[in-house]
């Protein structure tokens, strides 16, 4: 990260400005109308929102107004914050990608009363939590506003939950969808919560795409275990479960008018559920099951990518892949420098990732280490981030979720 060089120009080199025609030098923000002041303040980084109220009474009033939120909603985009996952903390921790710093946020009261809730999805300026009872809560981490969603249809609890995805259509109007994918690869279904109607829509079955060619036996015996290497490199059966925070990990994309949810199957393949066409398919494997690797799916600028940590010839390789629908092949688009990735060799490292624009935030964890890396897939730049310290001790996070820090995001 580049830093200012700290040089200060010599006074002798400064040019004396003429006195006439420089009324702007004496200009004060107090002279702005409320409308203009709101528009000016809306362009400040979201992190300044917490301090607006302490500047003066007028700014405090502006920060609390609905018209200021509307002004903020007109800002095209915000640099992402990454919501870190640690179920043992009673407060939220985020990484601010714009300021490259860690921030601590207070937990909303609703989540404090549901201490077993963990984040499972995020979109726009919102993060979705789920508790052990299967209840869902949607929260704006910046403002602390939170909303409990209506209960899911009890009949859906009979089928295993595979993926939870979220998509936001309007931050200011609180328009978003939460998608639950359930069943198994012989019989998948999905259910959608629509915030505009404040209800769960009818469950819809997905058919397997006809032109797909896979080795999955639709009539096979489900009791016959298929063994493979887990994300941590351990040999396990198909009924394995990932860490709670990433157990339902999935991404939501909208391309050419088609909404698609991608998630990892229990055997490590990428499954694509086309909600528009009502069908699903499995993508070819990147590596055979007997290779040691850790894998995760991310979304960057509307497309699904795969991040994979694998081991070859006594070294580790961390790469980003894109799937070509026309050729049905995986193409490598970015890779961590070998000098950085070699550190993870032989340590059974698990990768948990989240995308935001051209960036991928990667959590690498094992019994021996915990590291966070930010990757720019366009420039192929990889930066290891500083540790987050609380009370003088480093905190280890297992994963993260990406969201835009927007005070106007409505639950």
UniProtKB/TrEMBL annotation:
This is F-box domain-containing protein. SMART domains: FBOX. Gene3D superfamilies: 1.20.1280.50, Kelch-type beta propeller. It comes from Hibiscus sabdariffa (roselle). Residues 26-71 form the F-box domain.
């Amino acid at each position: 990260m580049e830093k200012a060089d700290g040089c200060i120009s010599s006074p002798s080199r400064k040019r004396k400005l003429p006195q006439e025609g420089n009324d702007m030098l004496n200009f004060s923000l107090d002279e702005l109308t409320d409308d203009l002041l709101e528009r000016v303040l809306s362009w400040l980084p979201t992190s300044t929102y917490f301090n607006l109220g302490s500047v003066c009474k007028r700014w405090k009033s502006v920060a609390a107004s609905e018209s200021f939120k509307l002004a903020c909603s007109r800002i095209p985009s915000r640099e992402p914050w990454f919501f870190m996952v640690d179920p043992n903390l009673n407060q939220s921790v985020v990484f601010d990608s714009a300021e490259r710093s860690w921030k601590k946020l207070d937990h909303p009261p609703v989540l404090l009363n549901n201490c077993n809730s963990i984040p499972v999805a995020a979109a726009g300026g919102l993060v979705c939590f789920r508790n052990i009872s299967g209840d869902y809560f949607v929260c704006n981490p910046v403002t602390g506003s939170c909303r409990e969603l209506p209960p899911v249809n009890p009949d859906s609890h009979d089928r295993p939950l595979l993926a939870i995805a979220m998509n936001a259509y309007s931050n200011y109007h609180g328009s978003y969808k939460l998608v639950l994918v359930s069943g198994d690869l012989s019989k998948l279904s999905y259910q959608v919560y629509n915030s505009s109607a404040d209800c769960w829509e009818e469950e819809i079955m997905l058919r397997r795409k006809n032109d797909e060619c896979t080795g999955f036996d639709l009539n096979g015996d489900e009791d016959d275990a298929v063994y493979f290497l887990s994300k941590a490199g351990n040999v396990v059966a198909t009924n394995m479960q990932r860490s709670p925070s990433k157990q339902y990990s999935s991404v939501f994309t909208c391309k050419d008018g088609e909404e698609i949810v991608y998630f990892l199957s229990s055997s490590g393949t990428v499954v694509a559920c086309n909600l528009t066409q009502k069908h699903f398919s499995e993508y070819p494997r990147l590596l055979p099951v007997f290779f040691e690797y850790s894998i995760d799916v991310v979304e960057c600028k509307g497309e699904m990518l795969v991040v994979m940590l694998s081991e070859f010839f006594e070294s580790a390789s961390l790469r980003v892949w894109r799937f070509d629908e026309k050729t049905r092949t995986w193409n490598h688009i970015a890779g961590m420098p070998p000098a950085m990735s070699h550190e993870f060799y032989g340590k059974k490292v698990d990768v948990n990732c989240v995308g935001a624009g051209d960036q991928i935030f990667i959590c690498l964890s094992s019994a021996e280490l915990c590291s966070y890396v930010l990757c720019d897939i366009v420039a192929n730049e990889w930066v290891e981030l500083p540790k987050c310290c609380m009370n003088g001790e480093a905190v280890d996070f297992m994963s993260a979720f990406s969201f835009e820090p927007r005070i106007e995001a409505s639950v």
